[in-house]
From TrEMBL:
InterPro entries in alphabetical order: DNA-bd_HTH_TetR-type_CS (IPR023772), Homeodomain-like_sf (IPR009057), HTH-type_TetR-like_transc_reg (IPR050109), HTH_TetR (IPR001647)
Record feature DNA-binding region, as residue ranges: 34-53
GO MF term list: DNA-binding transcription factor activity; transcription cis-regulatory region binding
PROSITE patterns the record matches: HTH_TETR_1, HTH_TETR_2
Residues in HTH tetR-type domain copies: 11-71
Taxonomic source organism: Ectopseudomonas alcaliphila
The keyword Lipoprotein is annotated on this UniProt entry: no
Record-given protein name: TetR/AcrR family transcriptional regulator
Keywords: DNA-binding
Amino acid sequence: MRKQPKQQRANQMIVLLLEATALEIADRGLDRLTTNHVAQRAGVSIGSLYQYFANKEMLVDALLMQKAELLINRVQQRLSPLLDQDIATVTRAVLLGIFEQVEQDKAQRELLRHWHSLNAAPVFQTLERQMTELCRQYLMRHLDEYRIDNLPALLFVLINAVQYTIARYLGDQGSMLSQDEVIDTLVRMVESLCQPGARPWQQASAQSG
C-alpha cells in the first residue's frame, strides 16, 4: 500500500476501493480484474486509486487480508458462547461458521479458487496466529478434560491442517466430497489429537490405589 491511511478520508477511500474490488471480482472473476474497472466502480479517478494501490495485485492483497479478518470475526462469534462446550461441538460450530462466511461471499469464493497463485502466505500466517490464540484460550480453559503434552505443536498441526484443508476444498470446484464429509472428518481429527484426560477425581483415585 503506497499511501498510509492517516486521515478519515483516506480510510474511507480505501474501504471504497476494496468494496469495489470485491464487487468486480464477484462480477467479472479474478482473471479479468483491472484497476480501471475498480476505479470506475468506485467512482474515482485512476490517479486517485494509484495514490493508495500501485497495481491490482496490491488491491487483491489488501482484500485478502480484509477477508481474513471477517473470517476471524465469524470464528470469534461462534466460539464465544461455546467456551464451556466439548471440543467436537466447538470445532463443528467454528467450521460451519467458516463455510457459511465463504458461501455467502462470492468474491471470497473466487479468491479461494485462486489462493495457490496469490500472495496468500501473509493471510495464512495472520489466520494461524489469531486462531492459535483463540484455540489456546479454549484449551487452557479445559486443562482437566484433555491430555495435551505439547500445546504449541498441537496447535500448529491442527490449525494448519484445518486451514489448508478448507482452502484446498473450497478452491476445488470439482471435489467429490461433500461439505459435511469434510467437516465430520476434521472434527474427528481434532478429537483424536485432543485425547480426553483423566478427571481430577480419577487421578486421585489412581494415586491412592
